[in-house]
Q: What sequence folds into this?
């Protein structure tokens, strides 16, 4: 079906409260002028980070039906963007979806959501790591955090001191599994007490880094916000380093806007307050070639 606007198939869960996943992808991409076609993987009352007793409805069978209907409609996508997946079957559906809908010009972004802070999320197990490792071979861009990168490469946890140098190698190692661009987030910076994102561009054999100051807070959903901005920015035609800059700046701004209020972290960040910044002219740039 014809579209005059860039269209992205977004394959994530929908969490009713607490932000993240589709609740991040839809407003961010939409603000960036990109149409989001949602394929929800599950519906939850809240995300799983910091809430207990949440309601969870698996939508694996609905995903297949949505896929079949979109095939009949002959939809085409400028981007395919997946995040939190609940099972092996969902990983297989995303794989089939990419094989069917990806064209030469389609940007495929896979956020291999598995865990954070050295731990797997409650709903993940080691077989999901295997599945994700295979799925990322179909991606153009992947955005693991440092914990997910460890699991995907079967590495031991790093000390903050050695992190940035080692992570450079990890980005290239992950890229050898398939994706042109590998972006590893939440990399600790020992000296500045900040955190960095480190990225590798396979085509140009170049490494990039953007660092932001440390904020003593952990808000769920910021990874989804980061990858949504990366997706939008690359689709708008930005370079990898500029996309990194825009995503880091947007997430930092969302965290800083929220942190001052002292709300419980599990409620996520006040994304609505900062959405209009996505349309601001490029102002400062802090990326480095490393
Ligand atoms: O932000 C990753 C994510 C996505 N979806 C759900 C989650 C999480 C992280 O906890 O619980 C449902």
A:
């Amino acid at each position: 079906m014809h579209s005059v606007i860039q269209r992205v198939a977004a394959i994530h869960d929908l969490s009713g409260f607490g932000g993240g996943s589709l609740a991040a992808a839809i407003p961010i991409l939409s603000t960036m002028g990109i149409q989001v076609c949602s394929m929800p993987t599950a519906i939850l009352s809240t995300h799983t980070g910091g809430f207990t007793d949440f309601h969870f409805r698996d939508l694996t069978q609905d995903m297949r039906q949505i896929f079949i209907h979109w095939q009949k409609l002959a939809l085409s996508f400028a981007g395919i963007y997946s995040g939190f997946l609940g099972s092996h079957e969902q990983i297989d559906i995303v794989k089939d979806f990419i094989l069917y809908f990806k064209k030469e010009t389609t940007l495929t972004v896979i956020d291999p959501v598995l865990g954070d802070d050295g731990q797997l999320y409650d709903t993940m197990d080691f077989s999901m790591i295997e599945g994700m490792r295979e799925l990322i071979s179909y991606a153009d861009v992947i955005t693991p955090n440092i914990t997910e990168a460890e699991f995907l490469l079967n590495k031991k946890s790093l000390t903050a001191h050695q992190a940035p140098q080692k992570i450079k190698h990890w980005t290239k190692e992950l890229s050898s599994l398939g994706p042109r661009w590998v972006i590893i987030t939440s990399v600790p910076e020992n000296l500045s007490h900040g955190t960095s994102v480190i990225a590798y561009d396979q085509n140009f054999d170049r490494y990039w880094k953007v660092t932001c100051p440390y904020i003593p807070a952990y808000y769920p959903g910021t990874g989804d916000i980061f990858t949504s901005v990366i997706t939008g920015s690359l689709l708008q035609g930005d370079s990898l380093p500029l996309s990194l800059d825009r995503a880091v700046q947007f997430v930092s701004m969302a965290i800083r806007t929220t942190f001052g209020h002292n709300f419980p972290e599990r409620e996520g960040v006040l994304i609505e307050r900062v959405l209009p910044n996505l349309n601001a002219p490029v102002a400062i740039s802090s990326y480095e070639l490393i």
